[in-house]
Specification:
The structure is a homotetramer of 326-residue chains.
Chain A (H helix, E strand, L loop, with lengths): L5 E6 L7 H14 L3 E5 L2 H7 L2 E3 L27 H13 L4 E6 L1 H13 L4 E5 L15 H22 L2 E6 L6 H9 L4 E3 L7 H11 L6 E6 L7 H12 L5 E5 L11 H19 L5 E6 L2 E6 H6 L6 H11 L1
Parallel strand pairs in A: 1-2, 1-4, 4-5, 5-10, 6-8, 6-9, 7-8
Antiparallel strand pairs in A: 2-3, 10-11
Helix pairs in contact in A: 1-9, 2-3, 5-6, 6-11
C-alpha cells in the first residue's frame, strides 16, 4: 500500500473529556515518526468546508488536561450525502492528506466506514464518547471522567439530602446506555438505578423505600436519561410523590456538567495510548477499524462491529446495588 | 442578667456549606469557656420534639470540612404556633438550656426573634444561608462555596459549549436574590445575567448575541431562579430559539449541587469567627441579634433589621458584565 | 466446613482511598446475608488489644465517599510474634468471630497468611494500597485515586512552571514500584520518568532537555520515591542544575496529599465489588486468598502469590512517554 | 494630560491564580473604551527585549478560568539598572504605548514606581500575588485561591493522619507573611500555627500536644515558610520527635501546588473589577498607584505605601486557633 505521509485528525459527535489528550497523542506521534499532521476543525462539516489547520508540537502543548476539544465538533447533514463526502474527499486530496484519525462515537464511525470504503481511504477511529457503548474497548475516552463528574455532583447532593432527609431522583446522561448510571450509582451508594437495558420493578423500589423510611435518611435514585419504561426522572418522582406524600422528594437533572472539565488520569492515559497506536497502525497499513483497549492490550475492531454490538450489562453490578443499599 | 451555663445550638432552613464549621465553633468555644453545650437536631422541629444530643469535643472532630449539617434541618409549621413554641420552651427548660445559637437564614431569624421575645430567652443568630441576602454581614456562611460550585459547574459547561459553539442558558439558585447569579456570572465571563432585582432588556441581549454570532463561539447566559420577568431559564431559551433558529441553544438547571460539598476556606473561617463570637457575646449578655462580619469586624444586627432590609445590588458589577463580555 | 456466622473486618498497613468503601461493602453484604459483623480498630494491633466495634447498617452510612479508613490502621510488631497472634486469636474467639476480611497490602497479607494457617482461620484479603503492586488484580483499591491526586497536583505545578519557564522535578509515592510515577507521568505529559524498575539513562535525559530548551517552555520530570539509581528527586535536580546553570529548576515532593481525599468512582466500585465478593466467598468456604479483579472478573490469588510476584512494567507505556514529550 | 490611546499590560514576579482574569479584564476594558492594547511577555525582561504581542478580544477568550499567566513572567536584573529601564522606555515609545498596567507584587511595584517617575510614564498596578501583604487592598489577586489550595491539600493529609493517628507538620508558602498559614490554619482546624510575625511559645505547643495525645487523634501544625524563629517545618518536627518519641510525626512541604490551578470565583471577580478600574482610572489620569479593593470599594494607594506598610496580623484570628483546637 502507499506510504502514509500526512495524517488528518478530527473530533466528531458529542464532545468528551480526553479528546484533547487524544488529539495531542496523534499529533505528537505523527511528528515523532516524521509525518505531517493537519487538524480538521468541526468534524466532517469542517472537512467539507476545508477548515484545515496545520499542527505542530506547540499546537498541542498543554492541552492534555483540558476538557472539550480544541478542534471543535459539529453535526454534518451534508456528510450523509454522496456529494458532501465527494467534496470532503476533494478537500483532503487538495491538502495531500492520505490518512485520517477520527475521534468520536458511533455516529462518527458510521460516517468513517462509509467514507473509507467509498474512496478506499485509510481511516482509523478512536472511541471518544462518554457513553462507553462501543464494542472492542473496555472503556471509551471520556467515560471515566464523566462517571466521576456524576459522582462528584451527587456527593454534593448527598450533603443536602442528608441535611433534609430528602429523596433525590437524579437524571444522568446515557441515551441508549445505562453504563454511566450503573457505575456512578454504585459509586454513590444509590438505592435504585433505572436504566434502558432492564425493566425496573417499580413496586419493588417503592417497597424498599417504604422500609427504609423509618431511618429518615437520605436516598438517591439514579435514572439514565434514555430510560423510557418508567418515564424518566420527572415521571418517576411524580409516582413517588403520590405514594409517599410526606416524603420530601426532589429531582436533579445533571445535564451537561457531566461532559466537561479536566479528564481523569485514566482518560488521559487511554487517549495517549490509543492515539499513539492509531498513528503506528496507519503506518502499518491498518484501516477501517476502531482502535481500543481490551484487557490492557491494544485491540482493533472493524467499525461496524464496534457500533452494532451492544455492550452487555454486567448483572453482578446490579446485584451489588441491592446488597449495598439495603 | 443570669449567667449562661448551657448553650443549645441548631441549624434551620435550607442547608448551607459551612454550617458544620459553625456548629464546631460554637461547641468548641462553649467548652473552652466551660459551658455545657447541647445540639438540637432538625431545627425548631427537633426542639419541639426534644431531639437533643449532648456535644463534646469529639462530636465535632473533623466536621469542619464537611458540607451539609450534622444536626440536620427541617421545616416546622408547629413552631409558627404559640403552642409549638410553648412546647419548645418547655423542652429547653427541661434540659436546663439557657441560651441558643441559631444557624440559618431569614426564616430562622423570624422564628428566633418571636421566640426570644416571647420567652425572654437569650438567642443569637449566625447567617447560614447560600443567598447572601442578610443585612449586617458582608457574606453569609455558604455563599462563597456556592458561587464556587456554580463557577466549577459552568467551567465544565463551557468546555462542551466551546466544542459545539453552543449557547447555554444556566439557571442558578437565588429565590429572591440575584447575588449568586451576579458574582458567578462575572466569574465565568457570562454574556448576560438575569436577576430579580433588575429588569433585563431582552432586546439588548438579543442584539448583542446577534453581533457575537459570527465568532461561532460559546456563550453563557445566567438566570437566577427567582427571576420572573423574563420567564426563567426555560422561557428565555425558548425566546432565543425563536429568534436564532440556527443557533444551538441548551438549558442547564444547576439545582442542588450548588448547596453541597466541602466549604471553601473563607466559609470555614467565617463560620469559625462567628461561632466563637456568638458564644462570647451570649456570655456578655447580647441577645436577639445576628452576628455577622462587616468590613472584617464582628458586627451585631437585630434580627428584624437583618431580615427586612434588602441588600443593594452593586450596579458596578453589572457594568462589568457588559464591558467584559463584549 | 463450619458455617460462617460472624465476620470481623479491619484495615491494615498504609491507608488508601477506597478503604472505607470496602469496609462498607463488607458490612452491608454481611448484613444482607444475615451474618453478624464486627469492625476491628487499628488492624492487627487492635485485634490483639480487643478493640472491637459492632457494625450495623448505619455505621457505614455515607462513608463511601470518604478517604482514609474509619477503622484506622496501625503497625503491629506484636503480631509478628507467636504470642501476639495467640492473643489475637483468643480475642477473636471470645467474640465468636469465625472469619476475617483483611483490607491492606503485602504486609497485611503476610500476617494474614501466617495467622490463617497457624489457627486454621478463614481469612480473605482485599487489596487496599495505593501501590498497585499486588499480583492477581489489575488495580488495587486506592491506586486510581492516587494517580489522580498526583495528576491534579502536577496540573497546578504546570501552571506555575509555564508562567516561569521552569523545570520541575516532582517526587511521587511508590516505594518499590514505579506504577504511580509511570501512569501519572503520561497523564501530565512529563518529559522523563525515573522509576526503580528501570535504569534511566541520565545522559539521554540531559540531551533531550538541551534540545527542548530553546522553546523556553516548562518541563516536568517525575521521580518515584523508591528510585535509588539516579539518587532521588533532590539529587537529580542537583545534577540538572550543574548541567544547566541558567535553567530555573525546582523540586516538589508531593508527599502525603497523594493518599488522601475522596476516592474516585473506580475505586469505590472496585472496593464495593470486592467487598461483596469477599463475604460471599467466605460463605462458600474460600480462605487464605486475596480477592481481586482481573479483566473485569473476580479472581482469587493465594496470599503468597499476591505478594511475591512482581508486577511487570509495561514497556509500551515507557515508549509513549518518549514519543509524546518530544 | 495627554489622552491615553494604547495600553500595555504585563505580569511580573511570582505567578498567582487570577492573573489571567486580570489580563482579560484589562484587555476587554481597553477594547470597550476603544483603546488599543498590547500584551508584554515576561514582565520587565520582555519589555526591555521588545516582546510585545497585540491583544484582541479573542486573545483572552476563556482564560478567566486558567491559573498561571499567559503573558508569562520573569526576573529582570536589567530593569534594576538605568540603562535597562531606558531600553524599556525606548521599546514602549517605538510601540506608541502610552500607559501601562502592571500586575504583580511588591517587586513589580518597586520597579513601576521608579520607572513611572523616571520617565513621567502613566502606570497603575494590580495586586497579583498570593501573599496578601500589600497595603491598600483587603485581598490580593490569588490569595483566596492559594488558601483554598492549602486547605484542599491538608484535607487530604487529614484523612491519612486520622487513619494513622499521626501528627503532621505542614509547611505553606508565605515568605515574610503568615497570612496564608493563619487563614488556612483556621480552615483546617490546625492545632498550632507558626508565622514570622509572632514568636510562638514552643513549650506551650508541646504542652497542648501532650494533653491531646490520649485521644490518639490526628494533629496538624502549620508553619509558614518564612518562619525562622522555631526553625521551619523540619526543625520543628525534629524537636517534636525528641519530646514525643512514640508519636508518629511527619512533615509535608506543600510547595508549588499552592500557586497553581483554577482561580476561585472571588479571585476572578476581584481581578475583573480591578482590571476594569485600572483602565478607567488611567483614562481619568491616575498614575503611580496600586488599584485595590477595600471594604468592597475600589481604592487607590501610591506604590510605596502599598509596599512599605506591613499588614497587621489580626490577633483575634490567633485566639480562634487556640479556642477551636483544644
Amino acid at each position: 500500500m502507499s506510504e502514509i505521509k500526512k495524517i488528518g485528525v478530527f473530533t466528531s459527535g458529542g464532545d468528551s473529556p480526553g479528546m484533547n489528550a487524544a488529539i495531542r497523542a496523534v499529533v505528537r506521534s505523527a511528528l515523532y515518526y516524521n509525518l505531517e499532521v493537519v487538524g480538521i476543525r468541526r468534524g466532517y462539516e469542517g472537512m467539507i468546508l476545508g477548515e484545515f489547520i496545520p499542527m505542530d508540537r506547540k499546537s498541542v502543548g498543554n492541552i492534555i488536561q483540558r476538557g472539550g476539544t480544541v478542534l471543535r465538533t459539529a453535526r454534518s447533514p451534508e456528510f450523509r450525502t454522496k456529494e458532501g463526502r465527494q467534496e470532503a474527499y476533494k478537500q483532503l486530496k487538495a491538502q495531500n492528506i492520505d490518512a485520517l484519525v477520527a475521534i468520536g462515537g458511533d455516529g462518527t464511525f458510521t460516517g468513517a466506514k462509509i467514507f473509507g470504503e467509498e474512496f478506499d481511504f485509510p481511516i482509523l477511529g478512536l472511541p471518544g464518547t462518554i457513553d462507553n457503548d462501543l464494542f472492542g474497548t473496555d472503556f471509551t475516552i471520556g467515560y471515566d471522567t464523566s462517571i466521576n463528574n456524576v459522582v462528584e455532583a451527587i456527593d454534593r447532593i448527598r450533603d443536602t439530602a442528608e441535611s433534609h432527609s430528602r429523596l433525590f431522583v437524579v437524571e444522568v446522561m446515557g441515551r441508549d446506555c445505562g453504563l454511566i448510571a450503573l457505575r456512578s450509582g454504585i459509586g454513590v451508594g444509590a438505592e435504585s438505578i433505572f436504566i434502558p437495558e432492564t425493566k425496573t420493578d417499580m413496586e419493588a423500589v417503592m417497597h424498599r423505600l417504604e422500609i427504609g423510611r423509618q431511618d429518615k435518611m437520605s436516598k438517591i435514585l439514579i435514572v439514565a436519561e434514555g430510560e423510557g419504561e418508567s418515564g424518566g426522572a420527572m415521571e418517576i418522582s411524580e409516582k413517588l410523590k403520590k405514594r409517599f406524600p410526606h416524603y420530601d422528594i426532589r429531582v436533579s437533572i445533571l445535564g451537561h456538567i457531566q461532559r466537561g472539565g479536566k479528564p481523569t488520569c485514566m482518560d488521559r492515559v487511554l487517549a495517549s495510548r490509543l492515539g499513539v497506536a492509531a498513528v503506528e497502525s496507519l503506518m502499518e497499513g491498518r484501516r477501517n477499524e476502531m482502535v481500543g483497549l481490551l484487557n490492557g492490550k491494544i485491540a482493533f475492531t472493524p467499525f461496524d462491529h464496534a457500533i452494532k454490538h451492544h455492550v452487555e450489562i454486567n448483572k453482578d453490578l446490579f446485584k451489588i446495588v441491592d446488597i449495598l443499599s439495603l
